[in-house]
Amino acid sequence: MLFSDPRLAPSETLACPTHVPPEWHLGRQHYAVWLLEIEQADVLQRLQQARRHLGAWLTDSHRQAHITLAIAGFLVEQPRYDDDACPLQLATLRQQLREQPPCAIPLNIGGLDSFASAAFLAVGDPQRQLPGLRQQLARGDDFRDSPYLPHLTVGLYRQCLPAIEVQARLRAFTHTQPLHLTCHSLSLCRYQANELQGPLHCIERFPLSHG
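Given the sequence above, the corresponding structure tokens read:
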């Protein structure tokens, strides 16, 4: 549910938890995701403008700018749980990406919107490349309870805020002219599973083709 949706907007934001529930990671160390790392200057500038605009509403984060594409799962030697990554499948997929890289991905970065739990910059996919790439990367059930929506996370909320206040602040963000971004690489990254919003560590970066 998005705050921009007049019919299905959340009634309030969800406050970010203060710690990662141990029943999620079950003692496992690293969680891996497929993503597009963002380094383009004008996009990073808009991201900082959005963070300043929302100010103290957001928690601190050490996570680098990125667009998440798909979940890889917990990195383990011997899978036990549904959300563990299969080492053989992951190795096979990585080899495929090296040998047959997907095409570079043109995207548009738009204005500010928000889920109940996190504010984000809208991401447009004019050539509809992301669904096919997600299908290639998919490990089956990606454990989402809502349809995938590409987005560039601005931050998580510190507290519960009423919808009317959030919607007014989102509308007041004036940096809405689309920014054109071409992603030339795809990254497999991991983060410390017991650390809330900790930094991403790149396992491998796969160049995308230009033809």
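Residues 26-207 form a domain with the Cyclic Phosphodiesterase; Chain: A, fold (CATH 3.90.1140.10). Try to locate this feature in the token string yourself.
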